[in-house]
Amino acid sequence: MWINKTIQSLCLLSIICAVPAAGEPQAEHATHAEATAPSPLDRYIALAGVWEGTATHGEGEPEPATVTYAVTAGGSAVVETEFPGTKHEMVTVYYMVGDELRLTHYCMLANQPTMAASFGDNPDVISFRYVEGTNIETGNEMHMREVDFEFLGPDHYTAKWTSYMDGQPGMCAVLDLKRVQE
Q: Which of 134, 132, 48, 62 is nearest to 97 (CA)?
């Protein structure tokens, strides 16, 4: 019986000691806040759903476009499917490498450029630039090399994708999309 009362007293004491006094800093809370600090990937996680609008390729006329976003891999990646169900369907995966936001674009050109994000003064603009790629042997083959996102609100954004060929900028594709379903 004495052992049971001693264990109960120790348990009660450990609970009392674990609760900080009023006004004392809460180290555990600060650690949790750091662990849940916003990630650049959060911007793309927030896009989850179906988006519709237009795609303009080069100097052509705007055409209807649909893009979907799905969060996967325990929240560590976002899969974007452009033009789902069409012959132009492509997939882009957004993910973190350390503290750097990256994407890999699985293009209908049968190559896979990887780009890293950079951030300027405008928090609503994220620019990605080419880092490396597969099936781009010399770098002179046509491939996507840049994309600039401008977030115009929680349910509206534009993306300007720029292809390169022979080391020079080529055609741009501009998507102007609004969320239609979460």
A: 132
Domain definitions of the chain by residue range: 2-35, 42-181
155 touches 178 (CB < 8 A)? yes
What is the per-residue pLDDT across 126-158, written as a single tens digit (0 to 9) for each?
999 999 999 987 767 888 999 999 999 999 999
Percent of the residues in the chain that have a pLDDT greater than 90, as a whole number: 67
Task: Report the CATH superfamily, name and number, of domain 42-181.
Answer: Calycin beta-barrel core domain (2.40.128.20)
How far, in Å, CA of 10 to CA of 84, rounded? 61
pLDDT (0 to 100) of residue 138 = 74
What CA–CA distance (Å, rounded) separates 175 from 74? Answer: 28
* Residue 64 burial (10 A CB sphere; 0-12, 13-18, 19+): exposed
Highest average pLDDT, of 21-30, 33-42, 156-165, comes from 156-165
